[in-house]
Amino acid sequence: MQLTDISVLETVSDWLNERRQVWLCTVVSTYGSAPRPIGSLFASDGRSRAGSISGGCLEEAFLKMINQGEFSSPACLFDYGKHHNEEGSVFELPCGGTIRLLIEKLEPSQESINQLSVWLKAEQSCLSYCRRVKLESGISSIEAEGQSSNQAVSVEDDSVSLHYAQAWNVLLLGISLVSQHVAQLARLAGYTVKICDIRKDLAGDWGYASVHGGVDVSWQSADQFVEHNVNSCSVVLALAHDPRVDDLGLMSALESDAFYIGAMGSKRTTATRIERLKRIGEYSEQDISRLHAPIGLDIGSKTPVEIAISIMAEVIAKRNGIKLAKVT
Fold it and tell me: Where do the XdhC Rossmann domain residues begin and end (predicted)?
């Protein structure tokens, strides 16, 4: 499975450093309707909340149970949809079915802060790993995995193992308002994001640097950038509208095993770019067919944020194996 809630982990880290007690929930399994995928995270300090494990109803019930003194052990498994209320009747999810949660009670200790820091570092490495939580003590550990496990979650008598696959990453070629919005949306969707450019005179136009919770620009040629960062879980997006950036990066991407390759531009720009790529790189029609251009789904997008939404919608649809209408 993939971790799609990095922002939740970052919020939990902030809460622990502010000396707050935190309850962290991970979706372990679902039966019937599944409002969130396995591995989804929800956290609360008893007042504030981060993330989601349902459409909203379960989070409210969970906060109520915390404030009633439930979930006092360091870690436990809890089946929502099989427990009883004060009147003795069974709670049910509004959408039907049940959901099993791993609930960890994190004390604002240095040990909890250190364990979460190790988890964040494992996620930022973008490699496959397993997180194992001991149910009696709540102690967690991280182990690297050579390849993605076929099993997302494994439950034993005394522990729960959560297997996280190699992270999906978005490689952005070129600074633009569209690339800024794409970076924000991609990170919210759980992708790691990196961006490159060679046009240092545009440095002031990038408003989503790490100091603002975003990513810093790697000032290097796009081909070197792609070659260094690309893998089979990579999404390469050429958004510079400048051949000096876009073309070099696309050539490197077409020679890689990148999962998705896309380029922004009109039909005329796309046709010119394809002719240029064929002439310079001698790419076949099969090679060129990997290029999604003009990029994005046909949602009538005009503004930078709308274009970014159409781009990420296409990326997510492609990743989920869903065919939707293309931009015409």
Answer: 171-315
Give the chain's end-to-end CA distance (angstroms, integer).
Answer: 34
- Domains annotated on the chain, with CATH: 3-164 (no CATH), 169-320 (3.40.50.720)
Q: Per residue in 192-232, pLDDT tens? A: 899 999 999 999 999 999 998 899 999 999 999 999 999 98
Distance CA 94, CA 24 (A): 22
pTM of the model: 0.70
Q: Residue 72 in contact with residue 105, Cβ under 8 Å?
A: yes
How many CB atoms lie under 10 A from the CB of residue 237?
Answer: 32
Quick check: 32 and 98 in contact, CB under 8 A? yes
Q: Is the dihedral of CA 319, 323, 324, 326 positive or negative?
A: positive
What 8-state DSSP symbol labels residue 327? Answer: P
CA 108/CA 80 separation, integer angstroms: 26
